Amino acid sequence: MNRLYILLAALLANIALLSLASCSDDDNGGGQPVIDCVRTTDPELADSTFTDAMVGQLILIQGSNLHNAVHVYINDQDVYFNSNYNTSTHLIVTIPQDLVVRGMDESLPLEIRVETTHGTATYAFHVIAGYPELELYKAQLTVNDQGVAEMVPGQEVTLVGSTLHEVEHIFVTDLDTVPLFEITEFSVNTDRTEIKLRMPANEIPDKGIYMVQCYAGDAYCGFSRSPQKPILTDISTDMPIPGQRVEIYGKYLTDLTTLNIGGEINIDVNTVETNENMDKLVFTMPDQLPSNSSNGLITVATLGGRASLQFYNYSRVYEDFDGHGTSMAYGWGTNHFCSYPNWGWAAVPETCPIKKSAGYFIYFEGFTCWWDHNLTINSKATPTGIDASTPLSDIELRYEVYMHEQFTVAETMTSTITVFGKEKAGIAIADRVTGKLMPGEWMSVAIPMSEIAPGVATYGDLCASDPGGDNFKIFLGYNNTGDNVIIAYDNFRLYVK
Q: Per the count of CB atoms within 10 A, which of 69, 308, 322, 492 is most buried?
């Protein structure tokens, strides 16, 4: 009997222990969490797992016992996740766009860590902010015995780019990217946009390529022992008004020797602004304008060579109110003045507050009252200085606009421009560089012709589709009347990119 009681007591004790263990397992969620892999959310790519990803990427963490997640850490940073998509085998999370990655902070652990109510799982994982890029290099050149500026062995060079994280190797290569020698002395700035390196104390090739190998990939930048030839990519306004600020954009815009307009006018290079990245030149348009016989170019010359962009190309002028525009029949409008007395309009009056000009311009002054500040011209001919096969996507309509004061009654004020019989409404009265209205200053506007004439393929097609008649118009648009607006337009032309 006593023996039976002892056996029964032992059995009850074991049941109690099993019950406690079962309750403990329930409380802990059913076992230690484990991360097996990371993949995309696409079920068709379930077998394609990876251990690297980019910021902003949506990932699926796969494993076991992952339910009841409390925190998800990537690179030791707590990231948001939607608990509705958290199961025992899956957890979905978007890597934050602003996640600090290795390269910004070398002490960060390269891992994903999932903390649940019943344990923690970790998984080795590498996040990158993007692929490295190199844009240009900067070097202080030395003038040799022959008076030629050149790069010398052992000198410092700065590579400029972006996402230059986790730099592993830097090589100087030939033009086929075959490494010639490795650069071992270098440093990267804190925002990973520049690498300062020291060239080895041996011979430098006349031309070569810097190859920067980062964890995320390779970046390349060509270089020359002698100065690089300047590259011009764009200009803020190719037909500015005297006194207007002009910005030229490109690469290797340094060691400037000449800035010439039209083959006729030289700008004092000492007055030209440059910047450290060598990607911009700034000057003020002088009072003198190129003549009709100018070459239609602005030319930048540096120690590395010469480059040009179109500038005051009169063959592409639609109308500049100074006689360079195409022919027309007649025109009419409201409260405006211009240069052609044969149109029956007067010249700009002395009372006009617009003092900077390239000659004559179309000028409106008066209170807005729904029918004002407008011009219509009949039978405007098309410019002949562009090849008919030029894609319309390569052409912009550009013009200069001036507004004397900020409007206050109207909440919005825009231009509606018709050229070639094609109308474009809602054009901002703002400078194309700053994106802002600049009261009391001439501003440059650029509109893609493909927006003005959608569906038209080439310049020849555009000219053929011109209906004639009232095919050139300027209208001021606004949502409330009552502003006293003084506004002017000038130098309507076509710009081929």
A: 492
**Token pair listed for 400:** 């200069």
SS (H, E, C) the chain: CHHHHHHHHHHHHHHHHHHHHHHHHHHCCCCCCEEEEEECCCHHHCCCECCEEECCCEEEEEEECCCCEEEEEECCEEECECHHHCCCCEEEEECCCCCCCCCCCCCCCCEEEEEECCEEEEEECEEECCCCEEEEEEECCEECCCCCEECCCCCEEEEEEECCCCEEEEEEECCCCCEEEEECCEEECCCCCEEEEECCCCCCCCEEEEEEEECCEEEEEEEECCCCCCEEEEECCCCCCCCCEEEEEEECCCCEEEEEECCCEECCHHHCECCCCCCEEEEECCCCCCCCCCCCEEEEEECCEEEEEECCCHHHEEECCCCCCCCCCEEEECCEECCCHHHCCCCCCCCCCCCCCCCCCEEEEEECCCCCCEEEEECCCCCCCCCCCCEHHHEEEEEEEEECCCCCCCCCEEEEEEECCEEEEEEECCCCCCCCCCCCCEEEEEEEHHHHCCCCCEHHHHHHHCCCCCCEEEEEEECCCCCEEEEEEEEEEEEEC
13-55: per-residue pLDDT in tens? 443 433 433 333 444 456 999 999 999 988 888 888 999 999 9
Give the whole-angstrom CA distance, residue 464 versus residue 355.
39
Q: Cα separation of 404 and 45, whole Å?
A: 61
Q: Could you give the CA distance from residue 340 to residue 325 in angstroms, rounded to a whole number?
A: 12
Residue corresponding to tokens 């077998």: 47
Contacts of 45 (CB under 8 A, 6+ apart): 39
CA distance 408 to 401: 19
| 123 contacts: CB under 8 Å, gap ≥ 6 | 35, 38, 61, 111, 112, 113
Which amino acid, 77? Q
Q: What is the pLDDT of residues 310-361, one digit of tens each?
A: 999 999 999 998 889 999 998 888 876 654 444 545 567 778 889 899 988 9
> What is the model's pTM?
0.74
